[in-house]
Amino acid sequence: MEIISGPGLRGRPWPELMPDHQPVLVFPADVGRPLVLEDGWAERGTTPALATGPHPGWSAVLDGYRLTVRRPGGPAWFDGEVAATREWSRSGRAYRTMLLITGPFTSVFDFQPTAAAGWLLLITPIRLTNGGVIPRGRHQADAKLLPDL
What we know:
By secondary structure, the protein is mainly β. The chain is built from 2 helices and 8 strands; from the N terminus they run ββββββαβαβ. The protein has helices spanning 86-95, 111-116, and strands spanning 14-17, 23-27, 42-43, 59-63, 66-70, 76-81, 97-102, 121-130. Strands 1, 2, 3, 4, 5, 6, 7 and 8 form an 8-stranded mixed beta sheet that branches. Strand 5 (66-70) and strand 6 form a beta hairpin.
């Protein structure tokens, strides 16, 4: 029986909200998710302004609890479920972008020391769209908006 399992444990990403409620997804290190600096990962102190708009080449599709994040060129960097709350999903709908944070940590328990040491990497921000469900009252041109919750 597995007692401790969930977001932030066993390599699973977890959602967070910035103070301004911009959605963030925090990814523990995983050999299946390569960190290629040329893809736009920024280190602390070299992070571009967050207000510059979506990062070119990166995209994410949220379909219920399933999230697919694609690197530049189209390959999936992450494809799996996230423990997104209603508030996080609504925030994603409002911003239509999210930040990705990763680094050399393996769980929520070693995130803070990694952050304090300045070892986090960030993609700022990436475009977030819905999973193809067109909300009632919208037409095909609006399909990229996240559904109303």
